[in-house]
Amino acid sequence: MKYLLGIDLGTSGTRSVLFDQSGKVVAAKSAEYPLYHPHNGWAEQDPEDWWQAAISTISFVVRESGVDPRDIAALGISGQMHGLVMLDEQGEVLRPSIIWADQRTGEECDDITCAVGAKRLIEITANPALTGFTASKIMWVKKHQPEIYDRCHHILLPKDYLRYKLSGDFATEVSDASGMQLLDVPKRQWSQEVLDKLGIDKDLLAKVYESPEVTGHVSAEATKLTGLSMDTLIVGGAGDNAAAAVGTGTVVDGRAFTTIGTSGVVFAHTSKLAIDPKGRVHTFCCAVPGAWHVMGVMQSAGLSKRWIRDTCCEKEVALAERMDEDPYVLLDKLAEGSPVGANRLLFLPYLMGERTPHLDPDCRGGFFGLSAMHEKPDLIRAVMEGVSFGLKDSLDILDGMGVTPDNMLLTGGGAKSAFWRQVLADVFACPVQTIKSSEGPALGVAILAGVGAGIYDSVEAACEQLVELGDTFNPDEENVKTYARYHVLFQQLYPALKESWVALSRL
Predict the structure, then answer these.
(1) What does the pLDDT look like over 157-182, one tens digit per residue?
(2) Is 168 exposed, middle or buried (0-12, 13-18, 19+ CB in 10 A)?
(3) Closest CA to 489 of 380, 340, 347
(4) Strand boundaries in 346-452, DSSP class E
(5) From CA 281, how far away is CA 272, in angstroms rounded?
(6) Strand 72-79 relative to strand 85-87, pairing
(7) Which residues, including other chains, have CB under 8 Å from residue 323's CB and lie 6 or more apart?
(8) 266 within domain boundaries
(9) Does residue 255 lie within any of the structural domains?
């Protein structure tokens, strides 16, 4: 029996999961770390925290599983996308990583658009310049911290920093590299044109692989820290959403999934390149060689629910701890006590700006319609409905592009909530279905590792064999009608407030 290791480097923590070749979980472990906000709209993390979390979780699953490390054939790494990791000549981290949620780079996005040209930028990178993407972060450091930029010898993405620490190799793969805004997405290679126009040396960037390709193996130094064998291969892996796609079987046309993690994603697979000329949704290379995916991303999905928990639900959190219960279960019970539409209360889920469909770092969250009659259950339900309306915006754009899914799968922490699953079915006006495995991204990169190690013939064949679907939630016709009316009003609020948010950012 051979085994496969999937490592998922998330925003809140890292999770390592050891699977057997049938996809069964043998051992799993998670470790959390902090997120820093030095200024309003900034978001940073310490790469050393990621590495220590990886060491602790990998060593735990190797030890607790009782598996001979030599039988762990390969590992794959999934990671939060777009984060900037800068290393000096000795491979040491130069500054905290500016991660995906950071919104400081509005001016740099304008600079990138002017340098490359708005139309040409979308033709090459399949996306407009975005504050979340890596290129604008590089340009920010170049402008504001030139002494650090001058010392930089390597630029990596978060998961690829773990790869470097595990193997000593500087490598990335097409799905994660697509989110840097430096990759020629149609050609699946670095764009020399974009690099030249931005003045970024190609030698700073890692070699690009396809997601199931082998990039190296575990180093002698990493074996001492993790308990892994030097025989264990490391494959390209994937960005978190591309990894989740593999873990949910979204690897053929007609398949789509929604994930609610810290951020939220509506993701559809396509074997034909499809680019939105308005740049409202993202087109990236996917983890299946020769294919792409189209996705809408909202910045604050699960983050919105965590915010309402941390700011308004101290009593419920304390009660959940005494009951040895997940506090989100108690929040869901409260939300169920509020009617559809949360007693005419809408929540704008723009706590960290927004990407899809508004591409606006200045917009902010808020409640619309708040009155003295509203109570905590209304606020919680409005938050969950507001996130669902934001995800519906992305689904509508995909439909307009002709990337129309036959079904909608659900993954991520938010998918654990049966109440939220039903809200999504009603807002989307289509059945939604869960995945039996809760290890979406980790399973996805383990599958990629298995393909790289020759255990499976292809990504598609492996998913057909390993991915099992779970419960289906069908929409309620009356709720669908009610939510459709609320969604129309929700869509009117952003343009009505856009200029006010700009004014607020200048105060």
Answers:
(1) 999 999 999 999 999 999 999 999 99
(2) middle
(3) 347
(4) 346-348, 366-368, 408-411, 432-435
(5) 16
(6) unpaired
(7) none
(8) no
(9) no
Q: pLDDT tens across 362-400, in order?
A: 999 999 999 999 999 999 999 999 999 999 999 999 988
Q: DSSP class of residue 474?
A: P
Is the separation of the CB atoms in 238 and 78 below 8 Å?
Answer: yes
Please, what sign has the CA dihedral across residues 169, 174, 180, 184? positive
Co-location of 372 and 423 in the same domain = yes
Say if residue 225 is in the same domain as residue 301: no
User: What token pair was written down for 123?
Assistant: 């033709």
Indicate whether 26 and 139 sit together in one domain: yes
In a domain, 259, yes or no: no
At residue 375, the 3 state secondary structure works out as coil
Lookup result for tokens 């439909």? 399
Which residues, in sequence order, are bridge partners of residue 214?
235
364 and 449 assigned to the same domain? no
Q: How far apart are CA 277 and CA 288, in angstroms?
A: 24
For residues 405 and 319, membership in a common domain is answered with yes
Judged by DSSP in three states, 415 sits in helix
In 3D space, the residue among 233, 235, 283 whose CA is nearest the CA of residue 130 turns out to be 283
Provide the angle, in degrees to the nearest 10, between the axes of the packed helices 106-116 and 134-144. Answer: 100
Concatenating the DSSP letter of every residue in 319-359 gives: HHHHHT--HHHHHHHHHHTSPTTTTT-EEE--BTBB-TTT-
| Number of domains the chain is built from | 2
Hey, what are 21's tokens?
């070749």
Residues 403 and 363 in one domain: yes
User: What is the tens place of the pLDDT at every residue in 73-82?
Assistant: 999 999 999 9
**pLDDT (tens digit per residue) in 284-302:** 999 999 999 999 989 999 9
Q: How many whole angstroms from its chain centre is CA 322?
A: 32
166 half-sphere exposure, CB direction, 13 A CA radius = 36
The answer to whether 467 touches 249, Cβ cutoff 8 Å, is yes
Q: CA–CA distance from 300 to each of 13, 175, 355 (Å)?
A: 17, 22, 10
> Does 458 fall in a domain?
yes
C-alpha–C-alpha distance, residues 393 and 391, integer Å: 5
133 shares its domain with 28:
yes
Residue of 49, 184, 240, 360 with catalytic role:
240
According to DSSP, the residues that pair with 226 across neighbouring strands are: none
Phi-psi bin for 237: left (phi > 0), alpha (psi -120 to 50), beta?
left
Residue 301 makes CB contacts below 8 A (sequence gap 6+) with 260, 261, 262, 263, 264, 349, 387, 390, 391, 412, 414
**Whether residue 240 lies in the annotated active site:** yes
CA-CA-CA-CA dihedral for 239, 11, 24, 227, to nearest 10: 100
Domain enclosing residue 160, as ranges:
3-249+440-466
Give the amino acid at 20.
D
Report the distance separating Cα 158 and Cα 9, nearest Å: 8
pTM, 2 dp: 0.84
Residue 173 belongs to domain with CATH number? 3.30.420.40
Residues 301 and 177 in one domain: no
